[in-house]
Specification:
alpha+beta; 50% helix
Length: 146
């Protein structure tokens, strides 16, 4: 019995050096991706929250474009959202509704010459405010006019 027990213990040596290095490299890559892409997704979350807060305002329909942008800029400043989201606010007024759109993309360098492109499209349609932040309208038709 003792000889059989010893041979089974010799076979169970554990993970090799290269196995440990592979796991450490994989975890390092995942942490690098999270640290580079995380801020973009956090900004997108705050863009959604800003649009939801804007939807809660009773006088939204009566506000001018500059007042709407000022409200969003104030929210973005408080929550430290800078760059593309603040510059990409578009307001399109219709006959019975209004569309506030924040459509942008962020290019973030990942490793050496490899970049990650994250695209975000958040919309507030006052006709369907309960569906806030989901893109309901294709803005390509409006971009061609600009």
């Amino acid at each position: 019995m003792g000889g059989q027990f010893r041979t089974s213990l010799q076979r169970q040596r554990g993970m090799s050096y290269w196995g440990i290095m592979l796991i450490v490299a994989g975890l390092g890559f995942v942490l690098t991706c999270v640290s580079k892409m995380g801020p973009g997704y956090i900004d997108a979350y705050y863009v959604s929250q800003g649009l939801k807060k804007l939807a809660e305002q009773d006088n939204l329909r009566d506000m001018t474009r500059s007042e709407i942008k000022k409200e969003l800029d104030k929210f973005f400043l408080i929550n430290n959202v800078r760059g593309q989201p603040t510059e990409s606010v578009k307001i399109i007024r219709g006959a019975d509704s209004m569309l506030v759109s924040v459509d942008y993309e962020v290019r973030q360098p990942l490793l050496y010459n490899v970049d990650v492109v994250m695209r975000f499209n958040k919309q507030l349609n006052t006709a369907k405010a309960e569906l806030c932040c989901e893109p309901l309208v294709d803005l390509e038709q409006f971009r061609q006019r600009d």
